[in-house]
Known about the structure:
Elements: H1 2-5, H2 8-39, H3 42-53, H4 59-66, H5 71-85, H6 98-126, H7 132-161, H8 163-181, H9 198-202, H10 204-211, H11 213-229, H12 232-243, H13 251-296, H14 301-329, H15 335-360, H16 366-386, H17 408-411
Amino acid sequence: MRTVLRRPDFRLLFGALLASMAAESILLLALAIWVKDLTGSDGLAGATIFAIIAPMMLAPLVGWVVDRYRRRPFFVAANLGTAMLLTPLFAVRDRADVWIIYVVAALYGLSYLTLSATLSGLIRQLVPSELLADANGALQTVRQGLRLGGPLAGAALYAAVGGWLLATLAMVGFVTAAAVVGLLRVAEAEPAAATLRWPAELGAGLRHLAGEPALRRALLGYGLGSLVMGFSESLIFAYVDQGLDRDAAFVGVLVTVQGVGGLVGGLLSPAVVRRIGEVGALAAGVTFFGPAALALAWPDLRLGVLALLLAGVSLPLTMVGLATLIQRRTPPRLLGRVAAASEALVSGPQACSIGAGALLVGVFDYRLLFVLVGVVTTAAGAWLWRGRRLSPPPGTPAGVPSPRRPHPAEHLTPDATRL
C-alpha cells in the first residue's frame, strides 16, 4: 500500500477522496436523524436510507452517461454537482419540508452511484494494473476508518449546530474534492463514439458482467450472500436487547468494534488479493461473514466482540476483491457501465434483505435468523472459493492453475461485515 501512496497522482486523488468521504460519512446518518427530529417517526427516518438506495435502478443509464465523458473532468463536475444538490436543505424548516430531505437523499444516491462509477475508471487510468489492489485497499482503509467516527460526529454536529451547518460542511468536502482532482494531470483520449443503438449501449455493462466468467461468478456468489447479509442490520438490535440484555445504545459500541476490524481488513486486502487473486479475496470476505453470524447466535459478549471483528474484516476484502476484478477484467470504454451495474446488483439484494430482516426479526427468534445468515454466507463463500482460479493471483499465467493454498480461514485472523 505504501508503494501506491508514493505516486504523486494517486496521493492527490487520495486527498480528494478523503475530503469527499468525510462529507459522506457525516451526512448520511444526519439526514435520517433530521427526519426523525422533524416527524418523530422511526419509519419515516428509515425511509431516508431507502431514498438513497432507490436510484440504483438507474445504474445502466448512469454508467452509460459516465462512459461518454473523460473521467477527470466528469469527476470534478460530479463533485461540484453533489455540493449544489445539497443547497435545498437550507429551505427545510419544519415537518412540512421533510419532502425536501427525501428529494435531496434520492439525488445524493444518484450522485453516489455516479461518483463510484467514475472513480473506478479514474483509478484504472492513474494506477498500473499491479497496484490496483493497493489503491482500492488504501481507499477502503480510509472508508472503514471514517465509519468509526464519521456518523457519530455527524449526529453530534447535527445536535449541536443543526442540519444547515452540517449541509454546509458536507458541501465544503465535495467542493474540496473537486478542486483537488482538478489539479490532476491525466492524459485522457476522448471516449469513442457509440457504435450500437442506445438500448444496446445501456445494456452493454450487464452483458459484459454476464459474459465474463470471473465477474459472473463473483456477482452471483456475492449477490447470494447479500440476500441475507442485510438481516444483520436489524438482528444486531435484537442481539443486544434480548441476548445481552443491554440498552440499544450499546449497538454503537459493537459498531465501533466492527470498524476496528474494517481497518484491519482494509490493510490486509491488497496482500490477500496478491496471494489468492480477486475472486479468492471476495470468497474469503463472504466466507468470514458466516462464522461471525453463527457466533452471534450465542449471546455472549466475548464471542460477540470476536464476531464483529471478523465481520469488520469481511467487508473490505469483498469490496477490494470485487473492485479490482472489475477494473482488471473490463475494457476502459465499458468501465462506467460495468461499475454502476455491479454496484446496483450488490446494493439491490442488500437493500431488500435489510427490509426483510426488519420484518422477520419480529416473527422468528433472532438466533435462528443468525444461523440462517451464517449457513447461506458460508455456502456462498465456498462456491466463490471453488471459482478462485478464474482470477489467478497477479503473475500467474492465465489458464494455469495456481498452486494449492490453504483456505483463507486457515491463515487469516478471524474477523468480518456489519452484523
